[in-house]
Amino acid sequence: MTTPRESILLLTHLLLLPLTRSLLHPPPVHVPTLVPHVPTPLLRSRFSAHTQLDFTTHCNSSCFHRGEQEAQKELLTEKLAFETLYADGSRTLTTVDVEGDDEEFDGDHFAHPLLRTGPGVRHRHKRVRRQIYGADGRFNIQGDDFLLDYPFSTAVRISTGCTGVLVSQQHVLTAAHCVHDGKDYVKGARKLRVGFLIPPSINGTKAGLTSSKKPLVRWVRVKRTRVPKGWIQGPQEVSMDFDYALLELRWPHRRPFMRLSVAPSSDDLAGNRIHFSGFDSDRSGELVYRFCPVEEESSNLIYQHCDARPGASGSGVYGRVWDNSLERWERKVIGIFSGHQWLEIDGENRDYNVAVRITPLKFAQICYWVHGNRLDCVQD
């Protein structure tokens, strides 16, 4: 039985609910349609690159405002072309067209980034320690109840040393630099695999010893890998905008996966927070979870101070996003953790950990990679 106070609070909540939804929940985002052309065969990869887990870039005002040039439809269409690497080492290049109004297209790449500058900004001094900010805020995920529990169960290992996130029954989203250095595929991409954690107890370990045992990994071969042309042979500062890749497994898995979403403004994220779980290199064999507020954001990147170490690259960055069809907050992947960036803006050096935003165009591209049918790729 509810108390009079609880009844009043409940009634107030119900009366304000329609108003709250209209104020807090943004309208659905229009997603452009990606129209692929017939793939063109390329020379086989040499697999000569080395994996760079500690991915760090530098950006100044010039590169930060380069979005004014990148907003042109022709340039973006060129960057949304993609390479496909097959298990036998062969490659193809697929060029694309994008259907949609020019006005909608330009809205995908804001002419002026959203980085907050001016009197209201909290200016930060250059930090000495990269990737860990102050007290370490990461949590080790242990035990069957957590490792096999959603959303932690969506995190997988990549055999090159990175992390990925399950986004369908057969697809893993990760960072492009985990498989390609911008010029060639890394050596480990020749026989790329995805690792699923298996808790000790499920592997037959005695119950009394599970606390001291680390999870084992079941590896699955990758059937094909897709990387956007915007990452390949692009200037380093701009390439971070396209630091994502999709891996297709040889066999479907049976674990829950996390749905994708166009990244909303941080103001439209529940609590203004993002979350991700990854396999940080300083905690070998363990899944590490963290969350933090969004500090700054541009049209293509999410700047934050979530503690992370090499190995977390490729983690699926998710937040609670309002789902109009379900009329509730849902965890959805809105970005991919890339690495670290030094920003030199207005003569001040600031450092951030950075995630790549899933824009409407990137959503359309990744969705096509997953479904192979552009008609299925509309914003949920």
TrEMBL record:
Question: Which sequence ranges are marked TM in the entry?
Answer: none
Does the keyword Protease belong to this entry? yes
This entry carries the following GO cellular component terms, namely: extracellular region
What does the record give as EC number?
3.4.21.-
What keywords does the record list, in alphabetical order? Answer: Disulfide bond, Glycoprotein, Hydrolase, Protease, Secreted, Serine protease, Signal
Please report which protein family the annotation says this sequence is part of: Belongs to the peptidase S1 family. Belongs to the peptidase S1B family.
* Name of this protein: Serine protease
Organism listed in the record: Cottoperca gobio
Q: What is the lineage of its organism?
A: Eukaryota, Metazoa, Chordata, Craniata, Vertebrata
